[in-house]
C-alpha cells in the first residue's frame, strides 16, 4: 500500500484478519414487530489493528459487540451472518467452547465501570477469577498476578486495593480495574464499548492513553466503540461509521478526518469540540435524532436529517460500495450524493483533535 | 461496626421499655381481670376486695408499674395465676422456650432450603412451567391461614393415614435424656437415635405448617432478586470473562440476590412467632406459643407479660443479628 504520512503504524492489509465479521445481522422480535438493530455489518480486524465503530446512540454499536461476544440475551433475538475469529466461526461454537474463548482470546470492557463491577466481591477476586478460570492458577498465584496487573494499569498501592470493593474506588480507577481484568489473560482481541463515556473529561484522556499504550505494547487488536470521533482520532487505524444498524462509511482515520464523504460523517466531525477554536463557536450537532430514522428499505435511512438529500435518496437504498475518488485506499461509502469537500473550511487535522 | 451495634442495642432497650409500659397498661385494662380469674367460684365481693389490696391493685397504675419494673429487673416477673399456678412466670418461659426455638428453627430451615433454590430456578426459567407452578403455589402458601393448614396436615397425615404423630414433642414411652431441651439435638448429642428420630417425627407436621408463609415470602423475594440481578451489568461482565456457570451463579448472582433475602428473613421471625401460637395449639406442642394461647384464656398476666416481652426481645435481637449479617455480606453498608 502507499506510504502515507501519519499512517506508518497502520498494519494495513498485512496478514490474515484476526476477526472477520460478515453480514452480521441481529433482529429483535418477530414477524411484523421484527426490528433489525444490526443489518448486514461486515468488517475485519487485523492483528494489532484498532478499528473504530462510531455512531450516535441507538445505531447498534453495543448490539454488534455483544453479538460478537455472544452475550446478547438468550431469548428474543436472532443473530445471522458469521464472526470468524482466527479461522473459527464464533457463532457456530457450542456454549462451552465459546465460554473458553471469552476472557481468554476475546475480552470486553463496558461503558459504566461502576455497574460493571460486582459490588459485593473484592476487586482482587474479580481480577483473579479470570486467571483461575483460564490459566488454571491457584488463589495465591492469581492474587499475586492480580496485584501486578493492577499496578500495570496504574492503580496505586495494588495490594491494598485488591481487598477493596468497587465503591471504594474512583470512576477512573474502576475502569482501570476493568481493563486489568480484560487484559489479564492477554487476549488477542479486546472490545471496548464506550469505555470513557461515563468518566470525567480529564480521566477520559488518561484511560484512552492507557488503552493505547497497553494494546500497542502487547499487540492486542482493539475494537473501539464510541459515539465520539474525538476518541477515534487518537486511537483508531480504521473507522466504521454506523447509522441505523448499517455501516455508512469506512475509511482510515486520517482519510476520514481529511475528507469525510458521507453527510452523516461530516455532521459528526462538525460536532467535535476543538481546542484551537475560539470559545465562542457553537458546536453544530447533526440535526434531528435517531428517532427520525426511516427504515433502510426503499431509501436512505438518514434522508430525513440529511442536508445533501436528492430525489433518488428516498427512492433507492444506497449500497455500501468502494469509494474511488482517490481519497485514500479501502474506502467504502453508502450515499447517493456524497460530500465533495470537507464541510469545515477550517477542518481540524486529527493531530489537532487529539491535542 | 461496634458503635452501630451499641446504638442498636440502646434503641432496643428503649423499645423494650416502651413496650413494657404499653403491655402493662393494656393487660390491666382488659375486662374480667386477674381477681375474678383467681377467685373463680369463690368470688364474693369481700374476697375480691381483700385480694385486690393484697396484690396492690388499688394503687395508681404508675405505682404498680414501678413495683413491677423493680421486681422484673431482678428477674422476678411474678407467679403464674393460670394453669401453671404457683410457678414463677419466668420459669414458664424458660421451660417452654426451647420447644418453640426448635420448631421455629426447623421451620425456618425448611423454608430456606426449599425457597432459595426454587426461587433461583424459577427466576432462571421465568415464564416456564416450573416458574408459573411455584408462583401459584407460593400465592396459596401465603393465602391459606396457618391454623387451617395445620388442621389439614394433622387430619391427613396423623389422624387419617397415621404416618406421623398428631401432637406433642415426644412419644410418652420414650425415655430420653435432655441437655438443651431441643429434643432432636439432645437425641443426637446423647446418641439416643430413636429419641432423636421420634422427636423429629413430632416436628415435621408443625414445622411444615409453620414454614408455609416464610417459604412463600422467601421464595418470592429470591425469585424477584435473582431476576433483577441477572440483568445487572456485572453479571454480563462475569459472562464476558468466560467464567463457569457455577461461579457466576454463586459468586455473582446469589451473593447479590441474597441481600434482600437476609432482610426478609429477619422480618419473618415475627411471623414465625405469631404462627407458632396457632401451630403449637393445633399440635399440642408445648412451646411458648401454646403457653401464650392458654395464658390469654386464663388471664394469666404475669405469664403473658413475660412471654410477650421475651418474644419482643427475641425479635429485636434477631433483627440486630440480621443487620450485622447484612453489613457482612454488603460491603457498601459496612464502610459507609
Ligand atoms: N434486548 C433488546 N431488545 C430489543 N431491542 C434492543 C435490545 N438491545 C438493544 N436494542 C435496540 O437495538 C438498537 C441498538 O442498540 P445499541 O445498544 O446497540 O445502541 P448503541 O449504538 O450501543 O447506543 P448507545 O450509544 O446508546 O450505547 C436500539 O434501538 C435498541 O433499542
Ligand atoms: S443517500 Fe442521500 S439522504 Fe442518504 S446520506 Fe446520502 S445524500 Fe443524504
Ligand atoms: Mg451502547
TrEMBL record, chain B:
It is a multi-pass membrane protein. GO terms for biological process: transmembrane transport. Residues 97-326 form the ABC transmembrane type-1 domain. Coiled coil: none annotated. It comes from the Bacteria. GO terms for cellular component: plasma membrane. Its main location: membrane. Belongs to the binding-protein-dependent transport system permease family. PANTHER family: DIPEPTIDE TRANSPORT SYSTEM PERMEASE PROTEIN DPPB-RELATED. This is Peptide/nickel transport system permease protein. It comes from Ornithinimicrobium cerasi.
